[in-house]
């Protein structure tokens, strides 16, 4: 029988009179890796905060295994003056770890995340994706039973995504459970053994085999100076990466025509378009 770490039983959540989540049931077991999908504002972050004990539920119950240890990493982390190594060290000491264990483990993790040359850079000068790495390193100094990650891939480049996927797979082998919110459907089948979508306040299971069948295109544009992607395209784009005025998009093939048509109308110049290898 699977070792149950956390069980959500018909939980609901309101903010004032606004319903966010309704009758959510979810069982988190040892070694499970769960991806939560849904549009912005659907309740993914709220559900993670509820599991972490940072937000109260309006109805239902939550059961935790005795002494289960959780680590929650938000999508946005404050840009503080401490360097990456100073922050990790201080958090380790607060957590009761020895200086020796902190130094040894920290070095291993910074190397694993290819951040050895950034340990003395103040966090306020790091990119969003790099700051997320620092937060993950801090959480893994003393590995938890359950790791909760809010949009861990949103600030990562392709190489960092590969490293993160490898890390999640290794954590699973070590017995950790990982629950993450994720926009990148094209990566879910590599990341998770269970996937759910929050839609109309409810948690709906997704078939990972169906996700593997979805085809994607890569579109690269040159954008006019100061131009942003129209908000009407938000739900059609899986991932957007900016490099100055160069824009790289990953889009479901079924949506490519609509995205292309709108961006060309907005004076974006298409440079490359090709099917994505998965």
List the helices and strands and how they pair.
Elements: E1 4-15, E2 18-29, E3 33-37, H1 44-52, E4 59-64, E5 70-73, H2 84-94, H3 99-112, H4 128-140, E6 146-150, H5 158-173, E7 177-181, H6 185-191, E8 194-199, E9 202-206, H7 208-213, E10 216-222, E11 237-243, E12 246-252, H8 253-265, E13 269-275
Parallel strand pairs: 3-7, 3-8, 5-6, 6-7
Antiparallel strand pairs: 1-2, 1-4, 8-9, 10-12, 10-13, 11-12
Helix pairs in contact: 2-3, 2-4
Short recap of the structure:
This protein has 278 residues and is an alpha/beta fold. It has helices at 44-52, 84-94, 99-112, 128-140, 158-173, 185-191, 208-213, 253-265; strands at 4-15, 18-29, 33-37, 59-64, 70-73, 146-150, 177-181, 194-199, 202-206, 216-222, 237-243, 246-252, 269-275. The protein folds into two domains: 4-211, P-loop containing nucleotide triphosphate hydrolases (Rossmann fold); 215-277, Alpha-Beta Plaits.
**Euclidean distance between termini CA atoms:** 33 Å
Q: In DSSP terms, counting alpha (H) and pi (I) runs of 4 or more, how many helices?
A: 8
CATH topology of the largest domain: Rossmann fold
> What integer is the average pLDDT?
89
> In what range is the share of β-strand residues?
25-35%
Kindly provide the radius of gyration, computed on alpha-carbon positions and rounded to a whole number of angstroms: 20 Å
What is the top-level CATH class of the largest domain? Alpha Beta
Count the E strands. Answer: 13
CATH H-tier superfamily of the largest domain = P-loop containing nucleotide triphosphate hydrolases
């Amino acid at each position: 029988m699977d070792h149950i770490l956390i069980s959500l039983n018909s939980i609901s959540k309101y903010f004032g009179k606004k319903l966010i989540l309704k009758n959510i049931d979810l069982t988190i077991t040892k070694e499970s890796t769960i991806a939560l999908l849904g549009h912005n504002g659907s309740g993914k972050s709220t559900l993670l905060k509820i599991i972490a004990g940072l937000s109260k539920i309006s109805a239902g119950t939550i059961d935790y295994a005795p002494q289960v240890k959780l680590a929650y990493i938000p999508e946005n982390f404050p840009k503080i003056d401490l360097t990456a190594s100073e922050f990790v060290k201080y958090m380790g000491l607060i957590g009761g770890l020895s200086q020796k264990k902190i130094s040894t483990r920290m070095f291993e993790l910074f190397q694993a995340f290819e951040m050895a040359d950034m340990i003395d850079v103040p966090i306020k000068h790091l990119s969003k994706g790099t700051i997320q790495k620092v937060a993950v390193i801090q959480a893994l100094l003393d590995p938890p039973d359950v790791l909760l990650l809010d949009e861990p891939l949103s600030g990562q480049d392709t190489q960092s995504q590969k490293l993160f996927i490898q890390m999640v797979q290794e954590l699973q082998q070590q017995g950790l459970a990982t629950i993450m919110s994720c926009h990148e459907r094209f990566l879910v089948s590599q990341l998770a053994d269970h996937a759910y979508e929050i839609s109309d306040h409810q948690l709906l299971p997704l078939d990972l085999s169906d996700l593997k069948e979805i085809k994607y295109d890569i579109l690269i544009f040159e954008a006019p100076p100061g131009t942003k992607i129209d908000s009407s395209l938000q739900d059609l784009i899986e991932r957007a990466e900016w490099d100055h005025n160069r824009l790289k998009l990953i889009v479901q093939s079924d949506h490519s025509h609509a995205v292309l048509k709108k961006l060309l109308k907005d004076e974006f110049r298409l440079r490359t378009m090709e099917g994505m290898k998965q």
